[in-house]
Design brief:
Blueprint (H helix, E strand, L loop, with lengths): L4 H10 L6 H22 L30 H7 L3 E2 L2 E2 L11
């Protein structure tokens, strides 16, 4: 695909970005180069390669959920908006009827 001035202006309108003449002249060759790399990737035979979401192996790491004492309870209670009986009170975020 050939990148020309008209296409750069069209893309900038789609992105809601105003480009001046100097910026158009900068982006024109850059977009052409990006598309040439995409063409190279599209020409590769990737049938034997399975899809992947990450370049490295990713696995979940689970930790046991254990209660721990906060080291500065007095300090956190002092700066909290509402506190009562050594606990922090927060407003409800879910209505009782689930709506």
């Amino acid at each position: 695909m050939e990148i020309n001035r008209k296409l750069v202006e069209y893309i900038s309108r789609l992105c809601r970005i105003e480009l001046n003449e100097e910026e158009i002249n900068i982006f024109l060759p850059q977009l052409s180069e990006i598309l040439s790399y995409i063409d190279k990737i599209n020409s590769l035979n990737l049938d034997h390669i399975s899809p992947s979401a990450s370049a490295i192996e990713v696995s979940n790491v689970y930790h046991k959920d254990e209660p721990k004492l906060f080291p500065n309870v007095g300090g956190i209670l002092k700066i909290s908006f509402l506190s009562k009986d050594n606990t922090i009170t927060v407003p409800a975020v879910i209505e009782k009827n689930g709506l």
